[in-house]
Structures are given as C-alpha cells and as structure tokens.
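Researcher: I'm preparing a figure for a lab meeting and need a structural model of a single chain. I don't have an experimental structure, so a prediction will have to do for now. The sequence is pasted below. Please return the structure as tokens so I can convert it later.
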Amino acid sequence: MYIVGAVGELVLGYFYRNLPLYLALFLLFSLGVGFGALAPQKLSPTQREDLSNFLANISASIAQNGSHAGAGTQLFYQSILDNVLKTALLLFVLGLTVIGAPLIMGLVFLRGFVLGFTVGFLVQETALNGLILAAAAVLPHNLLAVPAVMIGAAGSLAFASTAFQTMVGLSQKKIHGQFLSTSFICICSCILLLGASLIEVYLTPILISLASGYVF
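Model: Understood. Here is the structure written out token by token.
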C-alpha cells in the first residue's frame, strides 16, 4: 500500500507540475474540434453525397462483419497498429528528437479536427440521428483515446522542453529523470489506447448495429 501511495503521489506531482502544458494542449485540441466541426459546411453537395454514402457503407459493413471473431481479431490488430504504434510511439519518438515537438502539437490539433469533423458532419447531415450514430461510433473509444493522446503528447513535450533547455545551457537538470517519466507516461498512453482499441473493435460494432436502424 505504501508503494502504491508513493507512486500515486509521484504521478499527481507530475501532473501538477505540467498542468499549464496540459491546459495548452486541451485548448489546442478544442480548437481542432471547433475547426473540424465547421469544416463540413465547406463541402460541396457532391462531396457530401460521396462521404455520406461512404459512411453508410462503412456502417453497414461493421454491423454485418464486426461480430465475427476472425474479422474482429484482424480489426483489433489493425487498431493496435494505428493507435498504439502510429500514435503513442510516434509521439514518444517525436519528443525524443526535440525538433519534432511542433509535430506533436500538430498531431493533437489534427486529432481534434478529425473528431470534430466526424461528429459535425454526422449531426449536420442527419441531425438527431447523426448525434445518435456519433454517440455510438465515435464517443465510446474516444473516452480513452483522447486522454491517452493528451497525456502522451504532454509527456513528450515535457521531455523535449527539458532536453532543449539542457542543451542550450538554460537548465542544469539531467534529462534521465524526465526520460523515465516520459517512458512511464508513454506506457500509460499505450495501455489506454489498447483499451480504446478493444472498445472500438468489440463494442462499437454492437452499438452501431443498434443505432444504424435509426440513422440509415
């Protein structure tokens, strides 16, 4: 119990020290969501129709095949590749390079933009039905995925900032401790993204099946 309490205090202390960074990333993510929600208004009628048909086909395919064990396993591996390897580890590597820090902020904004665009398009196209589909298809796994991306990005930016200050002589801090903290944060981010992948592959198809009758 003492070890658990000590680890908890270290984690809380880490978050408190980096609270301004988390607030800045949350603002950046929110801006991405806002711009993404407005973006569907710029689509032409043809683009709207093509995208609507594409989403309808995807929804039907997920509802039909998502419950099969083989398809679910394949989708799970693909989700791990996209979420864990291409997101969490990419954020970690970009932080280690230091010069990749701006790309980390770009990824956070892009994540918000995609989320805002998806929900905005669904709601604008089918109003309440689109909101139902968004709640079924987008919300569940993003409850874990978004915090995972945020903490992963913050950890990588914190390391990049410490490393940069040390290299230019603005700080005498050793980066070993920050590296260990960032590695731990990356592991936590990977675990959350793994949980998001499980939800996306095994729970989301069921929710889409329930919601598809109200939408398409």
